[in-house]
Structure formats: structure tokens, C-alpha cells
UniProtKB/TrEMBL annotation:
It comes from Candidatus Anaerobiospirillum merdipullorum. Gene3D superfamilies: Sugar-phosphate isomerase, RpiB/LacA/LacB. It holds the Pfam family DUF3666. Belongs to the LacAB/RpiB family. Coiled coil: none annotated. GO terms for biological process: carbohydrate metabolic process. Residues 164-209 form the Ribose-5-phosphate isomerase C-terminal domain. InterPro entries: Ribose_5_isomerase_C, RpiB_LacA_LacB, RpiB_LacA_LacB_sf. Transmembrane segments: none annotated. NCBIfam families: PRK09273.1 (NF006753). Keywords: Isomerase. This is RpiB/LacA/LacB family sugar-phosphate isomerase.
Length: 210
């Protein structure tokens, strides 16, 4: 699984810490982490949590990534923004228990973590334990076991609902303010990371034209 890490401006200074904890756990489970930034508070590109949602949708809908780890100060804004865009089913995860239940019950493809709220002494340990429980079992297994069929059925229903309630990403991109989209991807590393992995030629062409 390819995991995209996406951070907004208020938490950019924690990029190295979050990337380290995520990579350590993900690599141990055979996954790859791709760091889409922000990389530091001094980056030219200044991502907001709304941009996080757009960027998550871009990498997931084009299959450049299979899963997104994002967040903001509380995690709430990033979660709301992610779920506003097509192809993203994001959970708000604050603890290892949240992480495990989200993967087993909801089987989504993104999580938003609070990187400021309650992030004090031992914050990096909580991150590590969240990531450990995130990847400990295949997604969609169900919990408790006797509820797995109902939960898997609900997941399929939600997938079908989102196909109706959300327009395709390329249509959304054409409808958005172009400056907003351009600012979201305006980082030298984006092209290096995204285009070789992108599997949607129409989206790639649109973004390159910006």
C-alpha cells in the first residue's frame, strides 16, 4: 500500500516527526510512505486544511496513493475537508483505538489526526501507537467479529452513495477556482512524486496545464 502524508501550515514544523513515526510502522508492514508536505513552516507553498482535502482527493482518485494520513491542529477541519471531496472517506482519529476501529468498522482510505490538541509530552508515542493499530490487520475485517457482515454491507452502501453524491474529480477540478488548485500543488516535489504514480491522464493533463 502506498500511503501519502499531507500536512497543513500550522503543523508543518512536525513533518519530520510524523514522517518518521509513520514510516517506521508502515515500512514494517510492507507499505511505502510518500511525503507530500508541507515539509516546514518556511515552505513557499502554504497548505490549508481545505487544500489538504483537495490534495487527498487528487492522490486517491488518480491511484497515486492508496491511503492518506493528514490532519491539522484539531484534525476536525482536515477531516471535514477530506470528506467534502470525491473519492475520500476520512476518519477523525485521536487514539490507537480510533485507528483500529476505523479500519475494521469503516474501512476508509484516509485519517485526520489532531497534531496540536492534546499533543504534549508523549505525543510521538501516541502517534506511533495510532499507526501501529492502523496497520495491524487488513481493512474491513469487522469488529466485533459477529458484526463483520453488517459492517461490510454498510461500507458498500456508503461507497455507492458517494458515487452518486460526489461528482468525478476532473469535473470538480474544472469547477474550482484555478488559483486555489494551483496553490495546492505548487511545490517542486509534487510533480516528482505525483505524475509518475498518477493513473488518470485527464487529471494529470489538467494539473500540468496550471
Amino acid at each position: 500500500m502506498k500511503i501519502a502524508l499531507i500536512l497543513e501550515n500550522s503543523q508543518a514544523s512536525k513533518n519530520a516527526l510524523i514522517y518518521k513515526e509513520l514510516s517506521t510502522v508502515a515500512t514494517a508492514h510492507g507499505h511505502e510512505v510518500v511525503n507530500y508536505g508541507m515539509y516546514s513552516a518556511e515552505d513557499k507553498r502554504c497548505l490549508t486544511y481545505v487544500m489538504n482535502g483537495l490534495l487527498a482527493s487528487i492522490v486517491l482518485c488518480t491511484k497515486a496513493a492508496d491511503f492518506v494520513v493528514t490532519g491539522c491542529g484539531t484534525g476536525e477541519g482536515a477531516c471535514l475537508a477530506c470528506n467534502a471531496f470525491p473519492g475520500v472517506q476520512c476518519g477523525h482519529v485521536t487514539s490507537p483505538l480510533d485507528a483500529y476501529l476505523f479500519t475494521q468498522v469503516n474501512g476508509g482510505n484516509a485519517i485526520a489526526i489532531p497534531y496540536a490538541q492534546n499533543f504534549g509530552w508523549g505525543g510521538e508515542l501516541n502517534l506511533r501507537y495510532i499507526f501501529e493499530k492502523l496497520f495491524v490487520a487488513p481493512f474491513g475485517g469487522g469488529y466485533p467479529p459477529e458484526r463483520c457482515e453488517a459492517e461490510q454491507s454498510n461500507k458498500k452502501i456508503l461507497d455507492a452513495v458517494k458515487l452518486v453524491t460526489h461528482r468525478p474529480l476532473i469535473e470538480v477540478l474544472h469547477g474550482l477556482d484555478r488559483d486555489f488548485v494551483k496553490k495546492t500543488i505548487d511545490d517542486p516535489k509534487f510533480a516528482e512524486l505525483f505524475y509518475p504514480a498518477c493513473q488518470d491522464a485527464a487529471v494529470a493533463e489538467f494539473l500540468r496545464a496550471l
